[in-house]
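Sample entry copied in:
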Amino acid sequence: MGRPSKGEAKKALIVQTALKLFSRNGYSATTTKQIAEACGVAEGLLFYYFGSKEELMRTVVRTFSFAELARGHGEEWRALTGKEALIRFATLYLSFLERHRDYLALIWSPELIRDERATGEVTSLIRGMVEEGGRLVARAASADGGGPQPSVHTVETGVSMLLSSLLAYFAIQGRSGERTPEADDAYVREAVDIVWSGVFR
Protein backbone atom coordinates (compact mmCIF):
# COMPACT_ATOMS: atom_id res chain seq x y z
CA MET A 1 0.00 0.00 0.00
CA GLY A 2 1.41 3.40 -1.00
CA ARG A 3 1.83 6.41 1.18
CA PRO A 4 -1.25 8.63 1.58
CA SER A 5 -1.41 11.67 -0.68
CA LYS A 6 -0.91 15.15 0.74
CA GLY A 7 -4.66 15.70 0.54
CA GLU A 8 -5.41 12.48 2.44
CA ALA A 9 -2.79 13.35 5.05
CA LYS A 10 -4.33 16.80 5.56
CA LYS A 11 -7.82 15.33 5.87
CA ALA A 12 -6.58 12.85 8.46
CA LEU A 13 -4.86 15.66 10.38
CA ILE A 14 -8.05 17.72 10.39
CA VAL A 15 -10.10 14.76 11.64
CA GLN A 16 -7.62 13.97 14.43
CA THR A 17 -7.40 17.62 15.46
CA ALA A 18 -11.17 18.06 15.39
CA LEU A 19 -11.55 14.99 17.60
CA LYS A 20 -9.09 16.39 20.12
CA LEU A 21 -10.74 19.82 20.26
CA PHE A 22 -14.33 18.53 20.19
CA SER A 23 -13.65 16.13 23.07
CA ARG A 24 -11.72 18.72 25.10
CA ASN A 25 -13.84 21.84 24.55
CA GLY A 26 -17.18 20.50 23.34
CA TYR A 27 -18.55 20.42 19.81
CA SER A 28 -20.50 23.71 19.96
CA ALA A 29 -17.68 25.61 21.66
CA THR A 30 -15.12 24.56 19.05
CA THR A 31 -14.98 26.67 15.90
CA THR A 32 -13.73 25.68 12.47
CA LYS A 33 -11.25 28.56 12.76
CA GLN A 34 -9.76 26.99 15.91
CA ILE A 35 -9.46 23.61 14.19
CA ALA A 36 -7.81 25.17 11.13
CA GLU A 37 -5.35 27.14 13.26
CA ALA A 38 -4.43 24.03 15.26
CA CYS A 39 -3.79 22.18 11.98
CA GLY A 40 -1.89 25.05 10.39
CA VAL A 41 -4.22 25.16 7.37
CA ALA A 42 -6.64 27.69 5.91
CA GLU A 43 -10.16 27.53 7.36
CA GLY A 44 -11.56 27.21 3.85
CA LEU A 45 -9.80 23.85 3.47
CA LEU A 46 -12.09 22.36 6.13
CA PHE A 47 -15.14 23.37 4.11
CA TYR A 48 -13.50 22.14 0.88
CA TYR A 49 -12.99 18.65 2.34
CA PHE A 50 -16.04 18.33 4.59
CA GLY A 51 -18.58 20.93 3.48
CA SER A 52 -19.63 21.92 6.99
CA LYS A 53 -18.68 21.63 10.63
CA GLU A 54 -21.55 19.15 11.08
CA GLU A 55 -20.20 16.85 8.36
CA LEU A 56 -16.71 17.10 9.86
CA MET A 57 -18.13 15.93 13.18
CA ARG A 58 -19.91 13.00 11.51
CA THR A 59 -16.69 12.09 9.71
CA VAL A 60 -14.90 12.07 13.07
CA VAL A 61 -17.55 9.71 14.46
CA ARG A 62 -17.30 7.35 11.44
CA THR A 63 -13.51 7.30 11.28
CA PHE A 64 -12.85 5.15 14.33
CA SER A 65 -14.43 1.79 13.51
CA PHE A 66 -13.62 -1.14 15.75
CA ALA A 67 -15.45 -3.45 13.34
CA GLU A 68 -12.99 -2.57 10.57
CA LEU A 69 -10.07 -3.10 12.93
CA ALA A 70 -11.37 -6.52 13.99
CA ARG A 71 -12.09 -7.51 10.38
CA GLY A 72 -8.43 -6.94 9.60
CA HIS A 73 -7.51 -9.72 12.04
CA GLY A 74 -10.01 -12.23 10.65
CA GLU A 75 -7.54 -14.43 8.79
CA GLU A 76 -5.12 -14.45 11.71
CA TRP A 77 -7.87 -15.62 14.08
CA ARG A 78 -9.17 -18.38 11.81
CA ALA A 79 -6.50 -20.77 13.07
CA LEU A 80 -7.62 -20.38 16.71
CA THR A 81 -10.30 -22.19 18.66
CA GLY A 82 -13.61 -20.37 18.90
CA LYS A 83 -13.10 -19.29 22.49
CA GLU A 84 -9.50 -18.18 21.90
CA ALA A 85 -10.59 -16.13 18.88
CA LEU A 86 -13.21 -14.40 21.03
CA ILE A 87 -10.55 -13.69 23.68
CA ARG A 88 -8.41 -12.01 21.01
CA PHE A 89 -11.45 -10.02 19.84
CA ALA A 90 -12.17 -8.84 23.40
CA THR A 91 -8.52 -8.00 24.10
CA LEU A 92 -8.34 -5.97 20.90
CA TYR A 93 -11.47 -4.09 21.97
CA LEU A 94 -9.91 -3.10 25.30
CA SER A 95 -6.83 -1.91 23.44
CA PHE A 96 -9.06 0.09 21.06
CA LEU A 97 -10.78 1.76 24.02
CA GLU A 98 -7.43 2.64 25.57
CA ARG A 99 -6.10 4.23 22.37
CA HIS A 100 -9.25 6.25 21.67
CA ARG A 101 -10.19 7.87 24.98
CA ASP A 102 -10.86 11.22 23.27
CA TYR A 103 -13.24 9.49 20.87
CA LEU A 104 -15.16 7.86 23.72
CA ALA A 105 -15.43 11.19 25.53
CA LEU A 106 -16.87 12.74 22.37
CA ILE A 107 -19.43 10.13 21.34
CA TRP A 108 -20.79 9.74 24.88
CA SER A 109 -20.92 13.48 25.55
CA PRO A 110 -24.43 14.83 26.30
CA GLU A 111 -24.10 17.15 23.32
CA LEU A 112 -23.64 14.34 20.80
CA ILE A 113 -26.15 12.06 22.49
CA ARG A 114 -28.76 14.76 21.80
CA ASP A 115 -27.70 14.95 18.14
CA GLU A 116 -29.90 12.50 16.20
CA ARG A 117 -27.59 12.16 13.20
CA ALA A 118 -24.50 11.63 15.36
CA THR A 119 -26.42 9.10 17.44
CA GLY A 120 -27.37 7.32 14.23
CA GLU A 121 -23.71 7.11 13.19
CA VAL A 122 -22.69 5.76 16.61
CA THR A 123 -25.53 3.23 16.60
CA SER A 124 -24.44 2.02 13.17
CA LEU A 125 -20.85 1.58 14.38
CA ILE A 126 -21.98 -0.34 17.46
CA ARG A 127 -24.15 -2.56 15.28
CA GLY A 128 -21.14 -3.22 13.05
CA MET A 129 -19.06 -4.25 16.08
CA VAL A 130 -21.71 -6.70 17.24
CA GLU A 131 -22.18 -8.18 13.77
CA GLU A 132 -18.44 -8.60 13.25
CA GLY A 133 -18.09 -10.28 16.63
CA GLY A 134 -21.07 -12.48 15.81
CA ARG A 135 -19.50 -13.58 12.52
CA LEU A 136 -16.26 -14.35 14.31
CA VAL A 137 -17.99 -16.47 16.95
CA ALA A 138 -20.23 -18.30 14.46
CA ARG A 139 -17.31 -19.07 12.13
CA ALA A 140 -15.09 -20.24 14.97
CA ALA A 141 -17.83 -22.35 16.55
CA SER A 142 -18.58 -23.98 13.22
CA ALA A 143 -14.91 -24.83 12.79
CA ASP A 144 -14.78 -26.25 16.33
CA GLY A 145 -17.73 -28.52 15.53
CA GLY A 146 -19.90 -30.36 17.98
CA GLY A 147 -23.45 -29.63 19.05
CA PRO A 148 -26.19 -27.55 17.45
CA GLN A 149 -25.27 -24.02 16.42
CA PRO A 150 -27.06 -21.15 18.21
CA SER A 151 -29.15 -18.62 16.30
CA VAL A 152 -27.64 -15.41 14.95
CA HIS A 153 -29.72 -13.47 17.49
CA THR A 154 -28.31 -15.53 20.38
CA VAL A 155 -24.73 -15.11 19.18
CA GLU A 156 -25.07 -11.36 18.66
CA THR A 157 -26.75 -10.94 22.05
CA GLY A 158 -23.79 -12.70 23.66
CA VAL A 159 -21.29 -10.50 21.80
CA SER A 160 -23.25 -7.37 22.74
CA MET A 161 -23.17 -8.39 26.41
CA LEU A 162 -19.42 -9.02 26.18
CA LEU A 163 -18.69 -5.63 24.61
CA SER A 164 -20.90 -3.83 27.14
CA SER A 165 -19.16 -5.62 30.00
CA LEU A 166 -15.73 -4.67 28.66
CA LEU A 167 -16.75 -1.03 28.25
CA ALA A 168 -18.01 -0.93 31.86
CA TYR A 169 -14.83 -2.62 33.09
CA PHE A 170 -12.68 -0.13 31.16
CA ALA A 171 -14.58 2.86 32.57
CA ILE A 172 -14.66 1.68 36.19
CA GLN A 173 -11.17 0.22 36.47
CA GLY A 174 -9.65 3.05 34.47
CA ARG A 175 -11.16 5.61 36.82
CA SER A 176 -10.00 3.72 39.91
CA GLY A 177 -6.48 3.29 38.52
CA GLU A 178 -6.51 -0.44 39.23
CA ARG A 179 -6.08 -1.70 35.65
CA THR A 180 -3.04 -3.84 34.89
CA PRO A 181 -2.30 -6.10 31.89
CA GLU A 182 -2.77 -9.11 34.18
CA ALA A 183 -6.11 -7.82 35.47
CA ASP A 184 -7.26 -7.06 31.91
CA ASP A 185 -6.38 -10.56 30.74
CA ALA A 186 -8.10 -12.20 33.71
CA TYR A 187 -11.26 -10.13 33.20
CA VAL A 188 -11.36 -10.80 29.45
CA ARG A 189 -11.01 -14.55 29.95
CA GLU A 190 -13.67 -14.68 32.66
CA ALA A 191 -16.08 -12.56 30.60
CA VAL A 192 -15.52 -14.72 27.51
CA ASP A 193 -16.03 -17.90 29.55
CA ILE A 194 -19.39 -16.60 30.79
CA VAL A 195 -20.55 -15.51 27.33
CA TRP A 196 -19.30 -18.67 25.65
CA SER A 197 -21.03 -20.97 28.13
CA GLY A 198 -24.23 -18.93 27.78
CA VAL A 199 -24.25 -18.97 23.99
CA PHE A 200 -23.21 -22.62 23.58
CA ARG A 201 -24.84 -24.11 26.68
